Every structure is written in C-alpha cells, then in structure tokens.
C-alpha cells in the first residue's frame, strides 16, 4: 500500500513566531561547516551531543513499535467496527464519534522527546525521524480500511491560532506532506492517491489541551472545529484519513471527525505516530 502525490496548500503564511525563528536559525547553523564550533549538534531524543538523532535512541525507538514484523513481538490489534488490520488504538473511555485510529507505537521516550522537540522547540530537522513513522501508520490505516484505490484526502488536525502565531508554521501539515512523499518513494503501481488537505480550522478559541483531563479536553474542543469554506467541495463525498501526532483521550480526533462528517465526507479513519499508555491497542 502506498500513496502517490501531495497537494500543497498555498494560502497566506503566518509571520514567523519566536519558536519558528529559532528553528530556522538552528537549521541554517546545521547546514554550516562551523556548526559544531557555534552550536554543537544534540540528539532530539536524549540531548547527547554529536548528532541530530543518535544510534542509541534509534534502537530505543524501534522497541516502542506496536508491530515488529519478524520478531514475534506483534501485538494483537483492537478492531473497532468492521475494520481489520492494526494496531487500532482505543482510548478509555472512547469519545463519541471517534473514528478507528491506527498508531505506530507507544508515546514514550525517545519518541515523546522527539515529538516535543519537533513541535514545540523548532527541531524541524526531526521530520526525517518522524515522517517514516507517520507514513507507516498511514499505510496501516489505509490497509485496515481497505482503501486500495481512488483518492484519499490526508487531513491534519489543525493547530490553534495561538500556536500558529507562536511557531510561525503548521508542523503537522508539513509532516503529513513528508509522510506522503515517503510513501510515494516506496509506491507500488497500485494504491490510492493521497492528497494532503489542510481543510480544518478552529472556529473558536480553545485552551491548551496538555494541561486538561479527559472530560475537560472534550468540553474544550466541543464544536471547536470546522472545515474551511474553500475546502467543503473538496471534502464532500471523499474518503478522509485524519492525522494527529499523538492519541491521548481521542478528543481532538473525535471533534475533527465530526467536522469532516458535517462537511459531507464519505468515510473517515485516523492515523497517528503514537498513542499514550491510557489507550489500548
């Protein structure tokens, strides 16, 4: 299973925020021959100097995978509804309307540290580590849903307006594009055409989810998302693969799926890099 093609959104860009500005400066420095004299490289997982991602964290990362073909460590998948494949992760309790969601592995270090550094500290160079994980999860979700032809829209969960302003970009959209590109390079003659569609937006202000409990997260996001008007005709009647970076309570995925169904998508499944221990897969 593989995807072909990616559709880039060419709308107005947000002005770079402090985190994004730092990230750009770091990227420029990393391209310099003098980088180790000015700013020593640090591993995005353990902060050890010497490389952007060390061999030790690479080995630890593989141990977090829900599926490890050929090792005998495959975990039995949950199978919501009629969906096969796996691993499908299930928060407890399951929020109403949450679609079946495939995840690559457990949200624990060094993956947790890498996601935080990538998203919040401007370490966009870690896309090279994270994109293959998301690509594998997208591929697993497509296989499990039986979507092996036609067009599938890959819709990232939206960042809040405050986050976009502070970061200066939308890292999950960029990661989706990288994951689709990764699948394209591995593509077989058959398979669905994947198009990244950043179609969702916040229609009201929400609080930072990280400090909220299960009930508070759901209340915080209730009716908070909608498909942007320019994307409604694109979403209508299409199959959608919804992407979030980490599955915790499932509140974001449930609300995003509600907004997509309201806009008329024909079906929706989800994919994520990781799931917290509170989920079962």
Question: What tags apply to this protein structure?
Answer:
281 residues; alpha/beta; 7-stranded mixed β-sheet; 9 strands; 16% strand; globular; disordered N terminus
Explain what you see.
Helices cover 36% and strands 16% of the residues. It has 281 residues and is of the alpha/beta class. The strands form 2 sheets. It has a 7-stranded mixed β-sheet with strand order 4-3-7-8-2-1-9, sandwiched between helices. Helix 5 (127-145) packs across helix 7 (171-185). The model is unreliable at 2-16, 28-36 and 69-85 (pLDDT under 50).
Helix-strand pattern, N to C? HHHEEHHEHHEEHEHEHEE
Termini separation (Å)?
21 Å
**DSSP strand count:** 9
Tally of contiguous helical segments: 10
Draw up the topology in text.
Elements: H1 18-30, H2 35-38, H3 55-62, E1 88-91, E2 101-106, H4 111-120, H5 127-145, E3 151-156, H6 161-167, H7 171-185, E4 193-196, E5 200-202, H8 214-221, E6 225-227, H9 232-235, E7 239-247, H10 251-262, E8 267-275, E9 279-280
Parallel strand pairs: 2-8, 3-4, 3-7, 7-8
Antiparallel strand pairs: 1-2, 1-9, 5-6
Helix pairs in contact: 5-7
């Amino acid at each position: 299973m593989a995807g072909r093609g990616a559709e880039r959104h060419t709308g107005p860009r947000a002005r770079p925020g402090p985190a994004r500005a730092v990230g750009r400066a770091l990227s420029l420095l990393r391209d310099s021959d003098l980088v180790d004299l000015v700013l020593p490289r640090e591993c995005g997982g353990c902060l050890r100097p010497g490389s952007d991602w060390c061999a030790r964290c690479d080995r630890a990362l593989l141990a977090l995978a829900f599926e490890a073909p050929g090792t005998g460590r495959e975990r039995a998948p949950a199978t919501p509804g009629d969906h096969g494949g796996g691993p499908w992760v299930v928060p407890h309790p399951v929020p109403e309307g949450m679609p079946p969601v495939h995840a690559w592995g457990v949200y624990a270090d060094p993956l947790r540290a890498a996601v935080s550094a990538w998203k919040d500290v401007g370490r966009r160079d870690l896309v090279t580590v994270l994109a293959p994980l998301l690509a594998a999860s997208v591929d697993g979700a497509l296989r499990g849903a039986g979507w092996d032809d036609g067009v599938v829209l890959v819709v990232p969960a939206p960042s809040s307006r405050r986050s976009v302003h502070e970061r200066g970009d939308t890292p999950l959209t960029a990661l989706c594009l990288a994951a689709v590109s990764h699948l394209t390079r591995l593509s077989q003659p058959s398979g669905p055409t994947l198009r990244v569609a950043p179609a969702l937006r916040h229609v009201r202000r929400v609080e930072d989810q990280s400090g909220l409990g299960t009930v508070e997260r759901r209340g915080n996001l209730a009716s908070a998302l909608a498909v942007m008007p320019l994307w409604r005709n694109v979403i209508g009647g299409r199959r959608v693969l919804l992407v979030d970076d980490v599955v915790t309570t499932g509140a974001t995925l449930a609300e995003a799926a509600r907004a997509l169904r309201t806009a008329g998508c024909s079906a929706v499944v989800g994919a994520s890099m990781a799931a917290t221990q509170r989920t079962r897969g």
